[in-house]
């Protein structure tokens, strides 16, 4: 069936600010959908309130609306434009719910807009737990025994009937919010109350818990002719009981027989076909009994999802892109495989590698949060790693996490005793897989661990045991005596050079590297091609591995190359904004005639889409991996300014190795990062800064605090998002803060700044090209100092600062940029007190606010900055016309509802997960006035 | 899950084009030869290994891990392992499946299948993809490559090789309810067990005949329909089967052919077959049903194909199914006769069940003619 030509214009609904359970994977899908539709000559309109997204970039759609995701905004857009259809399946549950609300109000009908990619009646059936259950029973698909309760009393009654353990699942919530396990009677009351309150319709499902069953997910595509194919089957490492977003997941399924696979496949297809009449993507989850291999259906999501983003990256198959084409009428058999370009899009990808996804949590940001994993998703990001075996992939994933892991295992840390470990792994927590490895090292058997973890499949544990066996073998040698065959085996199984040096307690990363290189043990690159090499593919999407024969598939072009380093897993303080920056960096590099090479390990990103860069290495942003890519590709240089602190951290090593850093030099970056050097520079420039000092212990800290004067800000050096930053007012508090700090980050240098109480905060983002300085924007925070800039409402341009203050800020910014010899981007934070401007810090890189400013002023700042960094353009080559009528406000968005019991007060440590943009015409705007009135509400001391 | 830490024995693989790969032995210790081919399926290795169509072939499993869930009594397509050897990246000795009976390693050992693991299967697949099917040798007895090359030179080419009669049943046997209202005669050239199940499940009484059974003998069973089975090797030298099939077609009874059976139906209608460059083997091949317009994901395992030019020219043959990747002929129907065939495997063990409707069609065709 060809394209439906009655559709000439489509509105895509985005997913809004990043919150836990709904992150930048929807920027990835929305972006793919927009590009896919425009390829077909369709006019694309886009609504999303999140300014840090690529999808809301002017280049992605014909018209972008940075508006709150409300029915009112939708009407405003439909009022202004002739729109034929709306595609609500790309923006997560937020977009689906909004589409449904508009449907209920008759808005689509009123404006003659067709809903595509979804059957609106299906939303209820998939989202409402009870309707889903009834539907499954009618369809003859097994489900767990359950009953829907609308009151506390009903809930208690049903619980008694069904028996423990139970699951409480609130209806219509995102990412499992408010849900939980009830192991026995004592936990029931609280869980029921929480669940009922979390549900917007005061309804929960009381369900028998199938703890210990295996969990699988299938990603499906279906077209208008009812052709269906399975793009990916994902197996959860963690058995039932942990939200899939918080589970370590593996693709393809590792322990699934064909009988089991086809049972799930048939059931999923039956469910999807019965769900209603729609063409697009769909995700179905199953639980399987390890004893009988019977299955039950857990849920179905008739839209693209976090899992489909992962499946796209895992297989190379662009699910959202194809789903968008199916929504406008194409059938699968008429579309081509985007990767091979010669075969059909209607097929089921075959993988000859293993992918492992590990979520990234930020419990350190939420003091008092319950860190036990369960039905409610708590992670803020994820990493994916690709290897030619599970062992290799899982160790690469650990290296990607950026939590100091050098592979699977703790090194140099004190280990728990065997019995402690066995007790510890009974509860799913973020570090369980590391503890399982420790338990195996301590000699606990595979079966015992499988039992203790309530059913992690023994196959996985056995693979981890392989790592342990190798590790024990390696530990018998030092680096000089380590047999090459063993070294090879270690590399094949994903051990990093650093890990090997720690195990042998000999030499360092570089020594291991030199030894293996001399022996010809070197990385080769293999392609992600959707078809297990059956067909020749042209898509430059690679991962590294070690192979007998060193057969390398990543062929070098003769073009000049530039590598862009990504920012790794999303976390609080470093998120989607850097993906935005990387995408623009890549495009600018391409425009300048270079080959753009991307390195990143975050599957939720647009920058790792298969056709954004000229070449993609889906690899950990970790020195060893980066270095071998550089050795292979021999780039002109590496850009570290666009990937947040993660990329910046690698600048020192690059500098040591003599690799050119495109843009600002390593030394300048070091000055900005090193508090001492930076303050000396400010002093020299005659720029005021808050008095400060450094300390390594409590006594020193108290002395410094008294010297600089209370209140003081206590923090470790080199931090992200104000991690572990505290404002304290007396000696006792200093002591407490320092003790806690040193406990978590032993040996760290502690910075103590005088805190400018009740001052005003503001920041500048700018570009310097060696000659000229351009102020991208001056933002003033609505909240007074003391709240992390990421958690503040920032107004662009400044609304309450005198022209003299703004001028002084701009002057200081330029002085600093000039002195640091910035080439590219810089962000400077200011405090203003009594009319005096102080500089608090400078970041020689893209900041959280760069995309916000680019959106608010409609200037392609990242493109310009990248070209300046590369030296292909000067600022004077560009004209800057700031198109902003009134003010733009960047408002932080929090995910506190995922952590009941956590103190919501804000302070110097960043806690928000996302942001939205809001435009106001003037300061009389009621929204602004309310914000201004509430500005001190959540301030901690 | 037993942990057998067998000390690793080196093994070597040599391809006819001179490619050499070193790895570790798996399964039986020894030396084996055959035609190298690859299968991209990610599940169902035991069903694949016991599929008689793989007779004489050494199989690369592209999937990164093979053996993870062990082996199970019921998951077989015949009574023994039919592949001549196995090549894998990670062949697993330890497994995890409560319903399984043992490990793949022990299973291959018991079936005397020599295998090699730890080699770059992806590089080997690329080699086969570009250079085409060729013979190869695996040995865990010697690593003397020159000696192995000499031995390999003496292995016959699959092109022109008749293998079906070697895997066919020696004695005829029956399956299903003897009182069933329809009877199907199966010409066995290496039939997969689940093909028989698919017919029995649909209420047929099935009798399986050795490959070279004369039609007169088959007719004594008074079949309502004939099934022409899948099997290994080149269909071109199978004159005996083509002759029988021509006679069967004259009976005007429903005829259904799968894979080799599809190629035989073509040959019986004077359409030639050919040896493909490297064949189709996997669980993900897209096929479009030109009659219904619907598409299906299919299981495939064939190294020979039906000549597309000749089919298109033949007035008496209708193309019912095509492969969406390379437009190859996946299904035909003889005009004016109740005879049809598909190149792929609708019984699909392993693989998707999208095409099981073909058995329904066959049974319906028989019933329609009978009534």
3D shape of chain B: globular
Mean pLDDT of chain B: 96
How much beta of chain A, percentage-wise?
A: 15-25%
CATH superfamily of the largest domain in chain A: ATP-grasp fold, B domain
**Secondary-structure element series of chain B:** EEEHEEEEHEHEHHEEHEHEHEHEEHEEEH
Instruction: Please report the number of helical segments of chain B.
Output: 11
Task: Output the keywords.
heterodimer, A: 941 residues, alpha+beta, Rossmann fold, Dna Ligase, domain 1, D-amino Acid Aminotransferase, Chain A, domain 1, 7 domains, 7-stranded antiparallel sheet, 31 helices, globular, B: 371 residues, alpha/beta, Glucose Oxidase, domain 1, 2 domains, 10-stranded mixed sheet, 7-stranded mixed barrel, 11 helices, 25% helix, disordered N terminus
Describe the structure.
The complex is a heterodimer of chains A (941) and B (371). Chain A is an alpha+beta fold. Chain A folds into seven domains: 9-116, 3-Layer(aba) Sandwich (Rossmann fold), CATH 3.40.50.20; 145-208, ATP-grasp fold, A domain (Dna Ligase, domain 1, 2-Layer Sandwich); 214-349, ATP-grasp fold, B domain (D-amino Acid Aminotransferase, Chain A, domain 1, 2-Layer Sandwich), CATH 3.30.470; 358-521, Carbamoyl Phosphate Synthetase, Chain A, domain 4, CATH 1.10.1030; 525-662, Rossmann fold, CATH 3.40.50; 691-754, Dna Ligase, domain 1 (2-Layer Sandwich), CATH 3.30.1490; 760-933, D-amino Acid Aminotransferase, Chain A, domain 1. Helices cover 34% and strands 19% of the residues of chain A. In chain A, the strands form six sheets. Chain A has a seven-stranded antiparallel beta sheet with strand order 14-13-10-11-12-15-16, sandwiched between helices. In chain A, strands 31-30-27-28-29-32-33 form a seven-stranded antiparallel beta sheet, with helices on both faces. In chain A, helix 1 (25-39) links the parallel strand 1 and strand 2. In chain A, helix 16 (458-474) packs antiparallel against helix 17, helix 24 packs across helix 25 and helix 26 (698-708) crosses helix 27. Chain B has 371 residues and is α/β, with parallel strands linked by helices. Chain B folds into two domains: 10-153, Glucose Oxidase, domain 1 (3-Layer(bba) Sandwich); 164-370, 3-Layer(aba) Sandwich (Rossmann fold), CATH 3.40.50. Helix content of chain B is 25%, strand content 31%. Chain B has helices at residues 45-49, 104-110, 121-131, 145-153, 164-167, 193-201, 215-219, 239-250, 260-268, 308-313, 357-370, and strands spanning 10-15, 20-27, 31-39, 57-61, 65-66, 85-88, 90-91, 114-117, 134-139, 173-175, 182-187, 204-209, 225-228, 255-258, 273-289, 295-306, 317-323, 329-334, 339-342. In chain B, the strands form three sheets. Chain B has a ten-stranded mixed beta sheet with strand order 10-12-11-13-14-19-18-17-15-16, with helices on both faces. In chain B, helix 8 (239-250) packs across helix 9. Chain B starts with 9 loop residues before the first strand and ends with a helix. The relative contact order of chain B is 0.14. Residues 1-5 of chain B have low confidence and may be disordered. At the A-B interface, strand 11, helix 9 and helix 16 of A face strand 2, helix 3 and strand 15 of B.
């Amino acid at each position: 069936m060809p394209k439906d030509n009655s559709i000439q214009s489509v509105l895509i609904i985005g997913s809004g600010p990043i919150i836990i359970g709904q992150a930048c994977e929807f920027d990835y899908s929305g972006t793919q959908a927009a590009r896919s539709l425009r390829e077909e000559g369709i006019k694309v309109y886009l609504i999303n309130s999140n300014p840090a997204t690529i999808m809301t970039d002017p280049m992605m759609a014909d018209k972008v609306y940075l508006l709150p995701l409300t029915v009112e905004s939708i009407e405003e857009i439909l009022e202004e434009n002739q729109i034929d259809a709306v595609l609500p399946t790309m923006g997560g549950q937020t977009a689906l719910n909004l589409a449904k609300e508009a449907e209920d109000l008759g808005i689509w009908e009123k404006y003659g807009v067709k809903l595509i990619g979804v059957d609106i009646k299906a939303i209820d059936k998939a989202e409402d737990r009870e309707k889903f259950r009834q539907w499954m029973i009618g369809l003859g698909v097994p489900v767990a025994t359950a009953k829907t309760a609308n009151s506390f009393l009903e809930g208690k009654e049903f619980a008694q009937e069904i028996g423990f353990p139970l699951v409480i699942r609130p209806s219509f919530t995102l990412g499992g919010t408010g849900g939980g396990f009830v192991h026995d009677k004592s936990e029931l009351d609280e869980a029921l109350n929480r669940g009922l309150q979390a549900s917007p319709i005061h309804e929960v499902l009381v369900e028998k818990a199938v703890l210990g069953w295996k969990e699988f997910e299938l990603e499906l595509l279906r077209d208008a002719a009812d052709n269906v194919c399975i793009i990916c089957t994902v197996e959860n490492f963690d058995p039932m009981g942990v939200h899939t977003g918080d589970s370590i997941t593996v693709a393809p399924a590792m322990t699934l027989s064909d009988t089991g696979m086809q049972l799930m496949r048939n059931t999923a297809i039956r469910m999807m076909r019965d769900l209603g009449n729609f063409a697009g993507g769909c995700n179905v989850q199953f639980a399987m009994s390890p004893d009988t291999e019977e299955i039950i259906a857990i849920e179905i999501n008739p839209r693209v999802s976090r899992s489909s983003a992962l499946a796209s990256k895992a297989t190379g198959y662009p699910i959202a892109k194809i789903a968008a084409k199916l929504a406008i009428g194409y059938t699968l058999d008429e579309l081509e495989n985007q990767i091979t370009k010669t075969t059909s899009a209607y097929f089921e990808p075959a993988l000859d590698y293993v992918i492992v996804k590990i979520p990234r949590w930020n419990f350190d940001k939420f003091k008092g949060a319950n860190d036990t994993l369960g039905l409610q998703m708590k992670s803020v990001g994820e990493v994916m790693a690709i290897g030619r075996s599970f062992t290799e992939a899982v160790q690469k994933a650990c290296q990607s996490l950026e939590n100091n892991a050098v592979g699977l295992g703790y090194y140099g840390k004190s280990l728990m005793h065997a019995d402690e470990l066995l007790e510890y792994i009974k509860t799913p927590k973020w570090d369980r897989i590391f503890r399982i490895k420790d338990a195996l090292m301590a000699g606990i058997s595979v079966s015992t661990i499988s039992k203790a973890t309530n059913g992690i499949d023994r196959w996985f544990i056995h693979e981890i045991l392989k790592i342990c066996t190798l590790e024990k073998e390696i530990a018998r040698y030092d680096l000089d005596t380590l047999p090459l065959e063993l070294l090879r085996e270690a590399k094949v199984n994903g051990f990093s050079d650093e890990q090997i040096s720690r195990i042998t307690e000999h030499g360092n990363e570089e020594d291991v590297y030199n030894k293996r290189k001399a022996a010809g043990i070197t990385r080769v690159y293999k392609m992600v091609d959707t078809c297990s090499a059956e067909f020749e593919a042209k898509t430059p999407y690679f991962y590294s591995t070690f192979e007998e024969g060193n057969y390398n598939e990543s062929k070098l072009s003769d073009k000049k190359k530039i590598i862009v380093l990504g920012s790794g897993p999303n976390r609080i303080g470093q998120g989607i904004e850097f993906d935005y920056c990387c995408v623009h960096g890549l495009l600018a590099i391409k425009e300048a005639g270079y080959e753009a090479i991307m390195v990143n390990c975050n599957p939720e990103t647009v920058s790792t889409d298969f056709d954004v860069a000229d070449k993609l290495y889906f690899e950990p942003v970790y020195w060893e991996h980066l270095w071998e890519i550089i050795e292979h590709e021999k780039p002109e240089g590496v850009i570290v300014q666009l990937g947040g602190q993660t990329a910046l951290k690698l600048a020192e090593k690059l500098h040591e190795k003599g690799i050119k850093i495109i843009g600002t030099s390593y030394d300048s970056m070091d000055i900005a990062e090193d508090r001492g050097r930076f303050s000396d520079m400010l002093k020299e420039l005659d720029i005021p800064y808050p008095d400060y000092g450094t300390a390594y212990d409590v006594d020193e800290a108290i002395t410094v605090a008294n010297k600089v004067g209370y209140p003081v800000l206590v923090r470790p050096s080199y931090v992200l998002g104000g991690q572990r930053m505290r404002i304290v007012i007396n000696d006792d508090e200093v002591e407490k803060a320092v003790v806690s700090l040193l406990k978590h980050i032993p040996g760290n240098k502690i910075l103590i700044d005088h805190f400018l109480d009740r001052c005003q905060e503001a920041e500048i983002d700018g570009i310097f090209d060696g000659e000229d300085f351009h102020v991208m924007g001056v933002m003033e925070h609505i909240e007074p100092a003391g709240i992390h800039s990421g958690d503040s409402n920032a107004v662009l341009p400044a609304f309450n600062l005198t022209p003299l203050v703004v001028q002084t800020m701009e002057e200081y910014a330029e002085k600093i940029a000039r002195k640091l010899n910035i080439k590219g981007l810089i962000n400077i934070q200011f405090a203003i007190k009594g009319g005096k401007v102080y500089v608090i810090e400078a970041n020689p890189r893209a900041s959280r606010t760069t995309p916000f400013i680019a959106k608010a002023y409609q200037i392609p700042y990242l493109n310009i900055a990248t070209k300046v960094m590369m030296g292909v353009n000067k600022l004077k080559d560009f004209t800057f016309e700031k198109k902003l009528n009134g003010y733009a406000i960047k408002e932080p968005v929090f995910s506190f509802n995922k952590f009941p019991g956590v103190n919501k007060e804000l302070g110097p440590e960043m806690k928000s997960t996302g942001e939205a943009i809001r435009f106001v015409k003037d300061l009389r705007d009621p929204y602004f006035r309310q914000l201004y009135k509430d500005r001190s509400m959540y301030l901690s001391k | 899950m037993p942990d057998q830490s067998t000390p690793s024995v080196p093994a070597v693989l040599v391809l006819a084009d001179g490619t050499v790969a070193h790895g570790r032995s798996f399964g039986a210790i020894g030396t084996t030869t055959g035609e190298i081919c690859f299968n991209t399926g990610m599940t169902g290795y035991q069903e694949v290994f016991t599929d008689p169509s793989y007779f004489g072939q050494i199989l690369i499993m592209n999937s990164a891990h093979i053996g993870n869930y062990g082996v199970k009594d019921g998951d077989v397509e015949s009574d023994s392992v039919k592949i001549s050897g196995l090549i894998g990246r990670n062949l697993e000795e330890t497994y995890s499946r409560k319903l399984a009976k043992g490990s793949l390693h022990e299973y291959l050992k018991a079936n005397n299948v020599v295998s090699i693991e730890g080699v770059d299967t992806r590089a080997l697949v690329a080699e086969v993809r570009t250079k085409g099917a060729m013979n190869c040798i695996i040995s865990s007895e010697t690593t003397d490559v020159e000696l192995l090359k000499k031995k390999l030179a003496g292995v016959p080419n699959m092109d022109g090789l008749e293998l079906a009669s070697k895997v066919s049943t020696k004695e005829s046997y029956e399956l299903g309810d003897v009182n069933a209202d329809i009877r199907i005669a199966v010409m066995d050239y290496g039939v997969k067990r689940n093909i028989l199940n698919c017919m029995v499940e649909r209420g047929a009484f099935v009798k399986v005949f050795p490959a070279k059974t004369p039609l007169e003998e088959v007719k004594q069973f008074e079949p309502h329909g004939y099934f022409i089975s899948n099997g290994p090797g080149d269909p071109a030298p199978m004159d005996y089967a083509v002759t029988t099939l021509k006679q069967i077609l004259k009976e005007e009874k429903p005829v259904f052919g799968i894979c080799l059976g599809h190629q035989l139906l073509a040959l019986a209608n004077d359409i030639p077959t050919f040896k493909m460059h490297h064949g189709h083997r996997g669980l993900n091949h897209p096929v479009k049903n030109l009659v219904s317009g619907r598409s299906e994901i299919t299981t495939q395992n064939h190294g020979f194909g039906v000549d597309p030019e000749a089919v298109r020219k033949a007035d008496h043959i209708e193309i019912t199914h095509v492969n969406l990747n390379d437009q190859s002929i996946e299904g035909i129907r003889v005009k004016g006769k109740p005879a049809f065939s598909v190149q792929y495997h609708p019984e699909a063990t392993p693989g998707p069940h999208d095409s099981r409707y073909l058995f329904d069609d066959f049974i319906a065709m028989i019933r329609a003619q009978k009534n």
